[in-house]
TrEMBL record:
Record-linked SUPFAM superfamilies: ClpP/crotonase (SSF52096)
Family: Belongs to the enoyl-CoA hydratase/isomerase family.
Domain of life: Bacteria
EC top class, as a word: lyase
Function: Could possibly oxidize fatty acids using specific components.
EC number of this enzyme: 4.2.1.17
GO MF entries: 3-hydroxyacyl-CoA dehydratase activity
One GO biological process term: fatty acid beta-oxidation
Keyword Hydrolase recorded: no
Signal peptide: none
Catalytic activity: a 4-saturated-(3S)-3-hydroxyacyl-CoA = a (3E)-enoyl-CoA + H2O; a (3S)-3-hydroxyacyl-CoA = a (2E)-enoyl-CoA + H2O
Keywords: Fatty acid metabolism, Lipid metabolism, Lyase
Protein name (Swiss-Prot/TrEMBL): Probable enoyl-CoA hydratase echA8
Gene source species: Pseudonocardia autotrophica (Amycolata autotrophica)
Length: 258
């Protein structure tokens, strides 16, 4: 878990992998190096059978202040297209392991988009979210116009994408972007606790729950319900279903790691 220069990786609790963005001089702006390292670390955790949940966090001042403007400012249309700029972030899709974003300070542009790529988002009371790309003469480029709109609805998404204004943690929670707000000093501990709770569940059930919730974004209601029911039925073929239900009936804690 070494060799990174823009992130710090650790395992702060049983079953939990933590990735902390660490580019303080640029408020964790997401350059190519950060992207490569985050994707590498998260995918390594996803492949590690010991890890059941991952937390991605930044600093107290910034989760991430967006894509690195100095890295992309001079690029031509041809270069951006040929490099398929930011496509590497798609590496966060299709993971089995649930990923929790723990956001304090600025989560702007690509920073907000990275947080939205995670499965659940816990915010410090200092968090500020926005898609200010319009102020730079561009638009969100890592799914922001799509994920934000699906999450908070057209009214707020248009407001944020067209004016570039930011919203604080309270507004983000009211809008449905954030699952919980905690005092900044407790952010990482809370996120690690939530991740540890998830990691203590049946890994098979957690991956299935994550997949089922995500199907909402890709399907009709009828298709989604059908997917859920088939997946629910399939879980009866797993030892974890037997263990979970037996433990309940025997009034003991389930042990999915045996
Ligand atoms: N890129 C590069 N450097 C940055 C970025 C950034 N996005 N944000 C901050 N920095 C640097 C500043 O240049 C400054 O460096 P230096 O000390 O060398 O001058 C340092 O970080 C500290 O920043 P400030 O002095 O500006 O700090 P303030 O506290 O005064 O302001 C703000 C903080 C409000 C966050 C301000 O820095 C800001 O507005 N930053 C830009 C925010 C922004 O526009 N983000 C969107 C970027 S575009 C984008 O994300 C496109 C998404 C496409 C997909 C992305 C995939 C990852």
């Amino acid at each position: 878990m070494g060799g990174y220069s823009t992130i710090v990786v650790s395992t702060p609790a049983e079953g939990v992998g933590l990735v902390r963005l660490d580019r303080p001089k640029a408020l964790n702006a997401l350059n190519h190096q950060v992207m490569t390292e985050v994707i590498d670390a998260v995918r390594a955790f996803d492949a590690d059978p010991v890890i059941g949940a991952v937390v991605i966090t930044g600093s107290e001042r910034a989760f991430a202040a967006g894509a690195d403007i100095s890295e992309m400012a001079g690029l031509s249309h041809r270069e951006v297209t040929e490099q398929d700029l930011f496509a590497g972030w798609d590496g966060l899709r299709g993971l089995r392991t649930p990923v929790v974003a723990a956001v304090a300070g600025h989560a702007l542009g690509g920073g907000c988009e990275l947080a939205m790529m995670c499965d659940l988002l816990i915010a410090a009371d200092t968090a500020r979210f926005g898609q200010p790309e319009i102020k730079l003469g561009v638009i969100p480029g890592m799914g922001g116009s799509q994920r934000l709109t699906r999450t908070v609805g057209k009214a707020k998404a248009m407001d944020l994408c067209l004016t570039g204004r930011t919203m604080d943690a309270e507004e983000a929670e009211r809008a449905g972007l954030v699952s919980r707000i905690v005092p900044a000093a407790e952010l990482v501990d809370t996120a690690v606790e939530v991740a540890a709770t998830i990691a203590g569940m049946s890994r098979t059930a957690a991956a299935a729950a994550k997949e089922a919730v995500d199907v909402v974004f890709e399907s009709t209601l009828a298709e989604g319900i059908r997917f859920e029911r088939r997946t629910f039925h399939a879980l009866f073929a797993t030892p974890d279903q037997k263990e979970g239900m037996a433990a309940f009936l025997e009034k003991r804690a389930p042990d999915y790691r045996r």
